[in-house]
Amino acid sequence: MKRAAVPAFALSVLYGCAWHQQSALNPGGPQAAKIDTLWWSFFWLLGVIFIIVMTVLLLTLTGRRANMEREALEVTHKASPQTESQTRRIVTGATIITILILFVLIVASVGTGKAIADLGFKKNPLTIQVTGNQWWWEIQYINGDASQTLVTANEMHIPVGRPVQILGQSQDVIHSFWVPNLHGKRDLIPSRTTNEWIEADQPGAYRGQCAEFCGLQHAHMALWVIAEPEDRFDAWMRAQLQPAASPSTQETIRGQQVFLNNACVFCHQIRGTTAGGQNAPDLTHFGSRRGIAANTVPNTKGNLAGWIVDPQSMKPGNHMATIAVNSTDLQPLVDYLESLK
Amino acid sequence: MRIAASAIIITLLGLTGCQREKRDIRPSPADLAIYGDAAKESTLRPGGPVTPQPVVNNPYNASSYDISEGQRLFNWYNCSGCHANGGGGIGPPLIKKEWTYGGEPANIFDTIVKGRPNGMPSWGGRIPAYQIWQIVAYVRSMNGEQPTSATPTRADTIQTNPQNLVNRVSGQTK
Ligand SMILES: [Cu+2]
């Protein structure tokens, strides 16, 4: 028994390392740090209590208290007055201690809840609207100037050290926005807007995931939050605001034609072309993204070809159309989409 | 005791007869075909009387999954932009008894593939056949021509046609 427990524990720790990019115990921002502190204080306090309770339980089961008669109970169903008053003292004391501890836990938890809901920052915030779709994320950078409003999907970049307001919405069912390294969960609810503030104080790539069951492909609905220094973020934003690069090689020119002559255009937008669909991820800078189909697989040419030919085997039930692209058209199409950096 | 046990067993056996609808999430390769002008239509004249056609069955008839997929595509492919939710706008209503180009599944399929002269665009050459059949199933369901067991009891949109409701209540299907 004990021998099995050691590797199991070691494994769970290792697991935590492998997934440090998606872990509430590896905070990348002030709110996650507060949640982390709360988690560990609960862990240690409750862990110590657990050990004390178990020790006392074992002692009572095995030890004999000299001044407490045990047999009497069984015969008369009544303890002697001496035992009665002693038991009462112990139970009352334990109850009071328990209530006090629970009270401390509630205060700590509510306090943390308040602190992370409003870190008091409203200075120069960035506003991002996140819209949940079955089964991908639309990410829109809100800007008073319409020409500076950016729409992308499944990958969000944020500047380090700057507060970000997440306005959550949903197109279909309830989803939940959850990037554990940055903050807790926030539901995205159809026909209303929810609000969450996040901030990263360390650069890094943090993986988020839908945290509210939303149908067949709920498990394959992930997003990346890339926190980077302000200047790199600005450069990224400038590049993303550009319309899609025009195809320059014969191959990619052909690929663009294939895209524009297929149903792709009804669902997908590529800014700078006639493809203006609003029902699926924007592909204007698809080649710059890390993953395909809400990060179900890494963004490589091979995976992309597999996705286009048979989206239903990679992500069964998803809403992308299965379109029979000619084998001679597939390579140019893939080259074109990957050239959209 | 024994009677109760056998009653339970018989009920359970009976339940095995119930079927859960099977979803064909992956369209069969045949249904991936993209039709151009070669739609199966025979001798329809625009506005003229509808000639009976060889019956072409909708592979997705009576499938609730495909009807709801059809409803989504009806919006995504912007049919709703011209036909609203079946009540009509720039295009004619799609909840009705008298169809200009026929209301059978094959007629609606042809209408979508080839387009119609007075402003209905052609979708052939782009949308794969399986999705057109899903849209056909949805258009038919708007007219109460899909089994009530496969259609929502309460539509997402306002019912524009009371007759539709009557059909639904009487369970009449075609
Ligand atoms: Cu989900």
Describe the fold and architecture.
The complex is a heterodimer of chains A (341) and B (174). With 341 residues, chain A is α+β, with helices and mostly antiparallel strands. Chain A has three domains: 90 residues; 117 residues, Immunoglobulin-like (Sandwich), CATH 2.60.40; 89 residues, Cupredoxins -  blue copper proteins (Immunoglobulin-like), CATH 2.60.40.420. Helices cover 43% and strands 18% of the residues of chain A. Chain A is built from ten helices and twelve strands. Chain A has a five-stranded mixed beta sheet. In chain A, a hairpin with a 2-residue loop joins β1 and β2. The longest helix of chain A is centred in the first third of the chain and has 37 residues. The mean pLDDT of chain A is 89. Chain B is 38% helix and 0% strand. Chain B contains six helices and no strands. Chain B is elongated, with a radius of gyration of 19 Å. By secondary structure, chain B is mainly α. Chain B has a domain of 93 residues: Cytochrome Bc1 Complex, Chain D, domain 2 (Orthogonal Bundle), CATH 1.10.760.10. Classes of the chains: A alpha+beta (341), B mainly alpha (174). Chains A and B meet through loops of A and loops of B. The site of copper (II) ion has 7 residues of chain A, from loops.
